[in-house]
Structures are given as C-alpha cells and as structure tokens.
Amino acid sequence: MSEVASTSSTGTPADPAPTGTQAKKVVVRFRSTGNAPILKKSVYKISSAQRFQALIVFLRKELGYKASEPLFVYVNSAFSPAPDEIVFNLARCFGLDGQLTINYATTPAWG
C-alpha cells in the first residue's frame, strides 16, 4: 500500500512547505549519542523552509567540527534524511510533541 500526497484542484501539493515571509519556525532538539559532545543549549528554533543540510552546517558550527571530521545525524534515532530534505516536511512527518528530535554521533549509530 503506498501513500499518495493530497493535491488541490490546481494539481499542486495541498500542504506545501512555507517559503519566504510565510516560513514558520520549527523547534529542533539536538541529542548527542555515544561519545559525541553535548551541546550547552540543545533546543533551537529554525526556519521550516531550511534544508536539512543547513541544520547539519549549524550543528557542526555549534560543536566546532570541521567538514573533515565525522558527524552522523539522524531523525528520531532512526534514519538519516537526505541533505536536500526540507525541515518542514521532516517536522510534519516525524516531529513528536511539536519538536523534531535530531540525534548526532561521531560514529555510525543507526542504519
């Protein structure tokens, strides 16, 4: 059984990601896994129109990690989304209690 996105009469998605001034904020909770350093502040609000890559870049900056240092990032301790995935879609599909939980580790933790 496959899921089909609902569309409006114009053929566009009924619930598109907000853009520009319409962009809402998403509450993101970062949780360290394994021997990854713990952030001093673990909850942030980011624009829902951002791509997941922007979230990874932000996390690297907060941790002081260079691009060459390994960092594995997961949603809800389950999977690693594509870097071009929109944060709005991740929050809508996988957010719990109004928050998107992002786990990070220095070594692979989940498949």
Structural write-up:
The chain is of the alpha+beta class and 111 residues long. It is 18% helix and 22% strand. It is built from 2 helices and 4 strands; from the N terminus they run ββαβαβ. It has helices at residues 52-63, 87-94, and strands at residues 25-32, 43-47, 72-75, 99-105. Strands 2-1-4-3 form a 4-stranded mixed sheet. The chain is globular and about 30 Å long. The two termini are 23 Å apart.
Mean pLDDT: 83
Share of residues in helices: 10-25%
Q: Could you tell me how far the N terminus lies from the C terminus, measured between alpha carbons in angstroms?
A: 23 Å
Strand content: 15-25%
Biggest sheet strand order reads 2-1-4-3
> Would you identify the regions where 5 or more consecutive residues have pLDDT less than 50?
1-14
Largest sheet: 4 strands, mixed
Please provide the count of β strands. Answer: 4
Ordered list of secondary-structure elements with their pairings:
Blueprint: E1 25-32, E2 43-47, H1 52-63, E3 72-75, H2 87-94, E4 99-105
Distinctive features:
single chain, four-stranded mixed sheet, alpha+beta, 2 helices, 111 residues
In a nutshell, what does this entry contain?
By secondary structure, the protein is α+β, with helices and mostly antiparallel strands. It contains two helices and four strands; from the N terminus they run ββαβαβ. The chain has a four-stranded mixed beta sheet.
